[in-house]
Amino acid sequence: DEAELRAHFEATVAADRRVEPRDWMPDGYRATLVRQIAQHAHSEIIGMQPEGDWITRAPSLRRKAILFAKVQDEAGHGLYLYGAAETLGADRDELTRRLLSGRQKYSSIFNYPTLTFADVGVIGWLVDGAAICNQVPLCRSSYGPYARAMVRVCKEESFHQRQGYELLWTMMRGTPAQRELVRDAVDRWWWPSLMMFGPPDAASPNSARSMAWRIKRHSNDELRQRFVDMTVPQAERLGVTLPDPELAWNEERGHYDFGTPDFAELARVIGGDGPCNAERLARRTAAHEDGAWVRAAASAHAARRAARERA
Ligand code: 3HC
């Protein structure tokens, strides 16, 4: 009966074992996983746009090949995650409809413009660096398909972060103009990267339940702090100054103190009022409409093949 099923579910989560698609789970657990996994998948797919704009304008064949591989990886991450959402009974077409109608979101970070090629390096270093901080704990999420998707994503994410840092390393040893491009890009992306981790814990409506169900293993503020602690030494080695006058090592805490991100800006960007929200959704909508004939042809082919097998 349901009491026994619930007790078994709770014992599984408490023992850090995995909940699998066929296991009984509370409706709220299923719903919050579909919500988070779908938004994670949407983020990967929309995230292809900011960097994708630079594939045709990369400064060398090597940079073009690296960027192309990274953007292709993001598409793959989206597909793993839509697949994980489908194991919970979600319908992929319905998730796309919710994204295109604004009922489901994607990460705020992808609503900022990529103005120069230095942005490609800074996105790899800061945005994929933040993603690694957020996604490594998700490899231990209580829901099996999500955790397993994250293991593969994190392996590819390390290449994304490394290639971004190496690009900036090269530019910082280039001309003064290249160093200026890096400084400008770091100034534009630093605070939005901190906002990626979500609102502060005190204003995070989903965290308590997500942590109780061991979907989320650390709070938004903990991961934000972990990202700052990891990134400041990298910025020093790179020779860039992060745009936060309050940034300072706190020996007592064993962490860096840093300023407060503009969470009002985060709320505006999540709400649709960021620099590129309309453009990102318009391009995703156009791609979906342009691809309608492919979906129709694939469905017709599948139907004909099923009819042949029945005959
Ligand atoms: N962008 C958009 N929405 C955000 C957000 C952000 N940066 N931060 C929080 N939100 C939304 C949440 O989705 C939630 O809204 P909802 O209830 O309508 O879904 C609301 O703001 C309140 O936030 P909570 O902290 O209560 O929500 P969560 O517990 O879901 O925590 C999260 C937010 C930390 C982003 C969590 O959802 C998460 O870990 N998601 C999976 C990882 C992910 O999406 N990473 C981001 C980008 S993907 C990526 O990095 C690609 C890489 O290759 C570059």
From TrEMBL:
It holds the Pfam family PaaA_PaaC. NCBIfam families: PA_CoA_Oxy1 (TIGR02156). It comes from Streptomyces chisholmiae. PANTHER family: 1,2-PHENYLACETYL-COA EPOXIDASE, SUBUNIT A, PHENYLACETIC ACID DEGRADATION PROTEIN PAA. Signal peptide: none annotated. This is 1,2-phenylacetyl-CoA epoxidase subunit PaaA.
